[in-house]
Amino acid sequence: MNIAHVLARKGTKVVTIRPEQAIREALTVLAEHNIGALVVVDEGCKSLGILSERDIVREAARNERVFARTVAELMTRDVIVGAPEDDLRSVGHTMSERRIRHVPVMDKGCLVGIVSIGDVVKAERDQYKGEVDTLQIQLIEDRP
Amino acid sequence: MTRAPIRTPDRPLRVAIIGAGPAGYYAADHLLRQDGLTVSVDMFDRLPTPYGLVRFGVAPDHQKIKTVTAAFDKVAAHPRFRFYGFVELGKDLAPADLRENYHQILYATGAQTDRRMGIPGEDLRGSHPATEFVAWYNGHPDYVDYQFDLEQERVAVVGVGNVAVDVARVLCRSAAELATTDIADDALAALRGSRVREVYLLGRRGPAQAAFTNPEIKELGELADADVTARPDEVELDPLSRAELERSPDRATTKKVEILQGYALRKPRGKPRTLVIRLLVSPVELVGDATGRVVAIRLARTELYATPAGTLQACPTDRVEELPVGLVFRSVGYRGVPLPGVPFHDRWGVILNEKGRVLDPDSPQPVVGEYAAGWIKRGPTGVIGTNKPDAAETVTAMLEDAARGAVLTPAHPEPAAAEALVRQRQPNCFSYADWLRLNEQEVARGRAAGRPRVKFTRVEEMLAALGR
């Protein structure tokens, strides 16, 4: 199973924000879509970084005026990016090892989706469920 | 959008399922099990017979996997389930016909075609998609007259997924082994005269990345008529794969590498055929002779590199070799086929969707009343049972939408109207009762020959068997 298989049934919509926007706006967008991270893009839709709820929490713990800061100030610039052909399993490993919860997916220079650790877990769970079900049917049919 | 009435026994939620494979059946099962909601399901297939890839994809020597059809027959026995075989969307029925008769339409048409390798010589004579060979040996009516040159002694199967393994294994089976299966009669006759001696299974990546599963690869070591072998240097773990396995140990992968390394150490036992597993090679060209027939495949050795997200991918080097082969099957991935009037994601070969809700690629908002399940929804991955949670997810979306009235508004939702329309458009359509009669006859013909069944492979044959 690869990333494209996950995006096929998730859709390729990515919620984005611009670097000059305020954290207050970013929080509104996160809450509105009930998600945990935003991809930060410039006017040409080039991906610049990622802003996660963790980035905001970290700043909020030390700065009361976190809401007025800009996305550019808080975002993570060094982003691990996935490709549609990446194996889901290795992406899952990378995410748990590097403690990241969102991987934007780029295809030929275009942002085509985002995969969260929740997506990875769900896809793997469905795969195991399916395998167990298939094995069970075969075992039951084996009984005299 | 009008608010839909409560779906009662008088006015059931009418659902059309396009495609009678596992995803379609699992979805029908979920839909028909709902408490307090009456759903009526019509399942269509462009072929007369149901079960999709369980009948036409699963290899004939893997009968046990086909026992899942017993569960499908239970679904089909439900009083609010109807089957219409030999009815094709876009030919016998237009998308508008479905919208006139159903509240919801579920596409479960699978991945019917193969991905191309994108290399020169791909269309030379003697080079085929593995799907065509699989459909042919499984008695798919569209492929029954296909011919494959089994006079050739050397065959390459490009790909190391389970389909590639199926093709290689069927090519290596003895006639005696095949004769106890439900392989199509024409294919059995052709394979009986096969002169194939060497089969090469070709994978771009290394032993740890090969897609085949352990039971399938183990089975290759137990063939009556073929020695299996691999090259020691190609089944050795490269440093990147070794490091990944150490970081995140995985028993199945370790076992797979062990099995392959075991094959590399095996001494040939003098069996008439040899199956060679080649890894870390990537086809760069098919070479033809003056008549346009394939005579060789050029392979570049590959090296693995890690993508930023951690996947090990293959990159061809300039070390190229030529492997003489007279027949090539490509099995490098599968893709869906676009359906008339339904949005399609061409690059991934799927209907783009959100939890099964078909997405309009422009907005991208869900299209009211249209859904996808199975391989056309997620792409060709997983085993038969994977379609169960997949279909359940889609049905959940369908029921949510139905509950808030976001369904189509058919002019003729009564089941009798659809029945009349279908029979008028395709008088030769097959009902489930028709299929059960065909099934009995196939099984009876098989019993006489010591086989699970002898398949009908032509529509005319099936019609005649039903006395039409």
Keywords:
heterodimer, A: 144 residues, two-stranded antiparallel ribbon, 46% helix, B: 468 residues, alpha/beta, Rossmann fold, 7-stranded mixed sheet, 6-stranded parallel sheet
Describe this structure in words.
With 144 residues, chain A is an alpha+beta fold. Chain A has one domain: CBS-domain, CATH 3.10.580.10. Chain A is 46% helix and 18% strand. Chain A is built from six helices and five strands. Chain A has helices at 3-8, 23-33, 53-60, 71-74, 88-98, 117-142, and strands spanning 16-17, 37-41, 47-52, 102-107, 110-116. Chain A has a three-stranded mixed sheet. A two-stranded antiparallel sheet of chain A has the order 4-5. In chain A, strand 1, helix 2 and strand 2 (37-41) form a beta-alpha-beta unit. In chain A, helix 5 (88-98) packs across helix 6 (117-142). Chain A is elongated and about 65 Å long. The mean pLDDT of chain A is 91. Chain B folds into two domains: 13-112 and 336-430, NAD(P)-binding Rossmann-like Domain (Rossmann fold), CATH 3.40.50.720; 114-333, FAD/NAD(P)-binding domain (3-Layer(bba) Sandwich). With 468 residues, chain B is α/β, with parallel strands linked by helices. Chain B has 17 helices and 18 strands. In chain B, the strands form four sheets. Chain B has a seven-stranded mixed sheet with strand order 3-2-1-4-18-17-16, with helices on both faces. Chain B has a six-stranded parallel sheet with strand order 6-14-7-8-10-9. A three-stranded antiparallel sheet of chain B has the order 11-12-13, with no helix packed on it. In chain B, helix 1 packs across helix 14 (387-403). Classes of the chains: A alpha+beta (144), B alpha/beta (468). Chain A binds chain B through residues 1-13, 80-87, 90-91, 93-94, 97, 103, 107, 125-127, 129-135, 137-138, 141-142, and chain B through 64-65, 67-68, 70-71, 209, 244, 247-248, 307-313, 345, 347-348, 350, 352-356, 359, 364, 372, 377-379, 381-390, 393.
